[in-house]
Amino acid sequence: MSITIKSRTDIEKMRIAGRIAANARDLAGKSLEAGMTTKDIDKIVHDYIVGQGAVPSFLGYGGFPGSACISVNDEVIHGIPGTRKIKNGDIVSIDVGAYINGFHGDTCATFPVGKISEEAQMLLDVTKNSLYAGIAKAVPNARLEEVCGAVEEYCASRGYGIVREYCGHGIGRNLHESPEVPNYVQKGAKDMRIRLQAGMCICIEPMINVKGDAIRVCKDGWTVRTKSGSLSAHFEHAIAITTSGPVILTESDID
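-> structure tokens emitted (255 positions)
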């Protein structure tokens, strides 16, 4: 396993890619309303990224047919944009990547559509808070397991299921780089003992279910759902580890 260390110049380029991805994410999230299709959401993401002179990282990646992964309610990740119409009370995860100047940005957030249930709001709050709990541990000389363990402890202690088949990752010139960043501590795994150092860039992305860890892949070969049929949420930031602490590379600057 080889972990690439980014220079300050690299990180500044990643910040540009990350901001484009984050702006596309939030622009789509703010546009959500009942009656829109998931393809409508994807078009907002695509048009913004291309309009900024960047390329959607996901379009064609491994054969994926959309510019964003749009996952609704019990869909965990990798939802294919299509004719499905969203409804008031839904929660919609919008996972976005952008590539420009040789580097990728990758980010996700789960958004409410209209008034959502208390159960759904609690899931969104816990998942988002667990992301920031993990980010807070991403400092030089910390072990990777401290980041993973912070996410796990926050969610598991509140009774939520943690998806184990998918995880965060390194990022840079490639969309997915080493190391893998699970949302739980893989006991005995060598990678858990990796010490973080300045210049590493990783994506932390909790995928959290209301009930249970188990998931299933749909017949389309992409869309992942909870086996329980319960709601799932997904939040993600790309971060750079620096001597002064973690720096989020995927913050938006749109109102």
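The chain has one domain: 8-242.
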